[in-house]
Write a structure and sequence with these properties.
The complex is a heterodimer.
Chain A lengths: L14 H26 L8 H29 L5 H6 L10 H4 L5 H22 L5 H29 L3 H14 L11 H8 L10 H14 L22 H15 L6
Chain B lengths: L2 H16 L12 H20 L1 H5 L8 H26 L5 H10 L16 H18 L8 H29 L3 H20 L11 H6 L7 H19 L9 E3 L4 E3 L5 H11 L3 H14 L1 H24 L1
Antiparallel strand pairs in B: 1-2
Helix pairs in contact in B: 2-4, 4-7, 6-7, 6-8, 6-10
Classes of the chains: A mainly alpha, B mainly alpha.
Amino acid sequence: MKPIKELNPQFLESTENKKHLIDYLLGVADNYLILGQRLGELCGHGPNLEPDIALTNISLDMLGQVRSFYQYIAQLRGDKSTEDDIAFLRKEREYKNVLLVEQPNTDFGYVIVRQFFFDVYNRMFLGALQQSADETLRALAFKGIKEASYHERFSGDWLKRLGDGTEESKTRVQQAVNDLWIYTDELFHTTNADDAMIAAGVAPDMLQLKEYYYEKVGELLSTATLEIPEVEYFQKGGKEGLHSEHMGYILTEMQYMQRAYPDSKW
Amino acid sequence: MSEAEIKNLEVQFDAKIARDEKIEPKDWMPEKYRKTHIRQISQHAHSEIVGMLPEGNWITRAPSLRRKVALLAKVQDEAGHGLYLYSACETLGITREQLYEDLHSGKAKYSSIFNYPTMTWADMGAIGWLVDGAAIINQVPLCSTSFGPYARAMVRVCKEESFHQRQGYEIMLSLCNGSEEQKEMAQDALNRWWWPSLMMLGPTDAASTHTEQSMKWKLKRKTNDELRQQFIDQTVPQAELLGLTIPDPDLKWNDEKGSYDFGEIDWDEFWQVVKGHGPMNKKRLDDRRNAWNNGAWVREAATAYAAKQKLKKEETAQAV
């Protein structure tokens, strides 16, 4: 796909532009990291072998994506930092993932709903990112889109099964939808760095796709015989580094080795 | 069927195995063959999925992204092995649900090695290197076992296991090339996993109840003691290359027999763990039971949804 805009070759010579780009990339990649980590907790504990294997696959895809993004960030920084420094050595307020992905694996219903809300967004996002003015991002989007469509199909299919399965599954998954709905709006929230990258044609303007997102999600919820929650207030903050109380525990576990054995090679 | 007819079928069956021909699920087989294979293949499948737990314990704490991805993929491979082995077992006329029930009730066994805790990251290395190493020695001969579905599953399993073993060894190598603290971590893991790995090859030939029949059916090609010797002879030089010490003061090269002599295995510990009293037996089974029980509503939903979809299709077809 062709970029919507050509990037000015001097663009990255500006320190501010580079900083914005890095912050923007962290906002994208941290979602993959934290969701991949959450899914990793489930490996070996699925309701059956097939969904266990599938969720591990999604976790692997997320972590694969995150590595490419962090490697790109490390390259932009031009210092000695590595993908692992970026993944493991930041403080809580420096992670820029949305609140949705840090929500816990309360039960299989929550796992599927969290995944579905993210997957619909992610596929639209990667679709649009294929027209980024940044060549590396175009390549990453192109690489990720196939797996993202598979994820969306997987979580969407399970949402239908759980919604239109038994009374119990419907009650449970509706509860998950109600509880997680308040985190969907943040997916479309933009930071200053995001706005700068949208203006430069590096980032797609996801706000323009917001209506389409809710249309798609609503359509599937209704096929799954589930209600769309009526919510007055949404939660946000993750993209600015303002996380839920879950985040500290996720990081404590994830960073344990890097913190306990600084500067070691593994 | 008369006794003479059965006898005749048995003679043909034995001759077929002796000719190295495969027994397929629809072929006639003696009841004992079917039962032994259900026992062994399911035990093997259970070992794969219980074996996901000790390593799964480190996925969220893996020290680098590369290691996290590799570990996830490895544990996922084990789920895959479980899947093909359960499928192979199902061809013998038993359901996966029944097999799980036998695991959860404690009736069916799985490899005792997974009843030890994974305390440090080095355990991920030691398990790959030693436990997968011992598993390969046990399993390679099964690639040519007499029951077709099992033999074919094992070809795939063995390929992946040998990759896992290299991966585990490579984790150990990184630790041994690292700081003093990392090397200590590696040595400690070897100390804890060495003896249980030797026990993985099974009780001594004198105490093993299944060997003779299993040899005939090609479920076994070498005795437990032969396999154990092979494992030790292959592993000692690998430990030397790492600069680690095998925790056995009696271990020494015997020129005459061309292999290592080794110390007495603590068989009391072996039987204690086999009988369900190892450090992690209860936790492992609880985790499996919880995963299964907590997933019941999900499986029921999937079944109910599939039935509704089928009904809808039939109604549409009728309307047309």
